[in-house]
Design a protein that fits this description.
The protein is mostly helical. The protein has two domains: 1-65, no CATH class; 67-105. Helix content is 83%, strand content 0%. It has four helices and no strands. The protein has helices at residues 5-22, 27-38, 45-63, 67-104. The longest helix has 38 residues, at 67-104.
Length: 105
């Protein structure tokens, strides 16, 4: 999933809309914002990323949160999830090896 540009774009939009709601935005306001954004020409990706980072910094300031720490917290949680999945996969593979060896005899 993470290598797919379309899936990344869609996931980002969902997270941005969730943040919008968390800050008190309504569905009607969301629809108006989408129409407004769609009526302007798209910038280059690097400019758009800079714009997003600038707005996130402002949101962090208004909400009195450390956005860098929030990002680290999310990355740590994701890493733990990935490690847990990896451990489960290894255990499953190890459990299957003895069963396969028994049926071969």
């Amino acid at each position: 999933m993470l290598n797919n540009r379309i899936e990344r774009r869609e996931a980002f939009l969902r997270k941005a809309l969730t943040l919008y709601q968390a800050m008190g935005g309504s569905v009607d306001d969301m629809q108006a914002a989408v129409k407004g954004a769609a009526s302007t020409s798209a910038p280059t990706i690097d400019v758009a990323v800079g714009d997003v980072m600038y707005k996130l910094a402002a949101i962090g300031h208004v909400a009195d949160i450390d956005i860098i720490q929030a990002a680290y917290n999310k990355l740590d949680a994701a890493n733990l999830h990935i490690l847990d999945r990896g451990k489960k996969l290894l255990k499953k593979q190890r459990d299957q090896k003895p069963a396969a060896a028994m049926t071969a005899k």
